[in-house]
Design a protein that fits this description.
Blueprint (H helix, E strand, L loop, with lengths): L4 E5 H14 L4 E5 L1 H5 L3 H4 L8 E4 L2 H9 L6 E3 L9 H6 L3 E4 L2 H8 L8 E6 L10 H14 L3 E5 L11 H11 L6 E2 L3 H6 L7 E2 L25 E13 L4 E2 L5 E2 L4 E6 L13 E3 L2 E4 L2 E4 L2 E6 L7 E4 L11 E5 L5 H7 L4 H6 L7 E4 L1
Helix pairs in contact: 6-7, 7-8
Bound molecules: pyridoxal-5'-phosphate.
């Protein structure tokens, strides 16, 4: 077996859920488990998050998995259904639905099911992705409330990680929904951490549950979040470059001095980003932080499909078999993401199916 492994910590999940409760003590918590639990594996994380008041997913398969695991909480389909025939499954598994457009209301109006659906009616407060514009919202609500009394008012923020970034959306939402007798759900992780006025009845944390930061220029530890996934591997070969020698595909990196290089069993086919590190021609400006034997060094050269290179020049004790942390508690996924020009969300979701997982307490 290749030495690569993703380890999932149940206690970190429980801890991060407690952090959500600390930030939003008066709100119910709808844990976002979409994209297979942000790449962690829905079956691997659901027990650690069993204290949540509800789950939000995208795929019917994810929702069914959770119900069949025995969870009785509300399970919300974040984009609702795409075709009316899916309502049969929604009915059998008692799933909650986002309704974001009139076509979905028509599906409900024509559905043969008696059991009243549980609806999260989505308003578009400026993100212009899903939802009814404020002018249509009350019309949509009137049609939905003819079908079911179980309605939650909902919107999603475009810029909850920015100072005052939810103010305009919040004002639109409150103006449109004022004095309506229904609960509301607005806040994602960034809003939970940075915009307490948005918490209301249901918060919808995603990334913070996995121990990564939702907000620019912040680190997860400043919110007391713990990384849930640790991606590790080992050094499988060591090379010594003379000054002027190059490394890997495209001769992307040229050694400016004698350089000891470790080859790590992790590549882009495992989900490590290929565009790692900044170069000027073949001169390294900055690699991506990586920990070898607990000490931080950096990647060198181009990431290949199954391997990547790390600088061992300052780590003479490192050798074949030395443990490598690609991300986890020594090097946060946010640090890696930042150095690769992306966000922790993308790296976590992109861990490939060939990577074996292990769940620990
Ligand atoms: C994914 C998602 C969330 C969670 O967002 P995070 O930024 O990961 O906290 C909340 N609400 C909706 C509608 C989502 O799609």
């Amino acid at each position: 077996m290749r030495p690569i492994l993703a380890t999932i910590s149940q206690s970190a999940l429980q801890h991060n859920l407690a952090v959500v409760r600390k930030f939003a003590p008066h709100s119910k918590v709808m844990a976002a488990l979409k994209a297979n639990g942000y790449g962690h594996g829905i079956e691997r994380i659901a027990h650690g998050l069993s204290g949540a008041d509800g789950f939000a997913v995208l795929g019917m398969d994810e929702a069914i998995t959770l119900r069949e695991m025995g969870f009785e909480q509300p399970i919300l389909l974040l984009e609702g259904v795409f075709h009316a025939d899916s309502l049969a499954v929604v009915n059998v598994y008692r799933l909650s639905l986002v309704i974001h457009c009139y076509a979905q209301i028509e599906m409900l109006e024509h559905s043969p099911y008696r059991h009243p659906f549980n609806i999260f009616l989505k308003m578009n407060t400026g993100m212009n992705r899903l939802g009814f514009v404020p002018d249509d919202y009350l019309k949509a609500l009137a049609r939905v409330t003819k079908l079911t009394p179980n309605v939650t008012l909902m919107t999603h923020f475009a810029a909850a990680d920015e100072l005052n970034g939810t103010d305009a959306a919040m004002a639109i939402f409150q103006q449109t929904t004022k004095s309506l007798p229904y609960p509301s759900s607005l806040a994602n992780s960034a809003a939970i951490l940075c915009q307490p006025q948005t918490h209301l009845d249901w918060v919808r944390p995603g990334i913070m549950l996995y121990g990564a930061t939702p907000a620019k220029n912040t680190v997860a530890t400043e919110f007391d979040l713990k990384p849930v996934m640790q991606l590790t591997s080992e050094i499988i070969a060591v090379q010594t470059l003379k000054a002027g020698e190059t490394l890997g595909y495209g001769n992307r990196y040229t050694a400016s001095k004698p350089t000891r290089v470790g080859v790590v069993a992790c590549g882009y086919a495992d989900g490590y980003p290929r565009h790692a590190g900044q170069y000027s021609g073949s001169n390294l400006l900055q690699g991506v932080p990586v920990a070898v034997g607990g000490k931080i060094t950096q990647t060198l050269g181009r990431v290949s499909m199954d391997m990547l290179f790390v600088d061992l020049t300052a780590l003479p004790e490192a050798n074949i078999g030395s443990p490598v942390e690609l991300w986890g508690s020594t090097v946060s996924v946010d640090t890696v993401a930042e150095a690769c020009g992306t966000i922790g969300y993308e790296l976590l979701c992109a861990v490939m199916p060939r990577v074996p997982f292990k769940v620990v307490d």
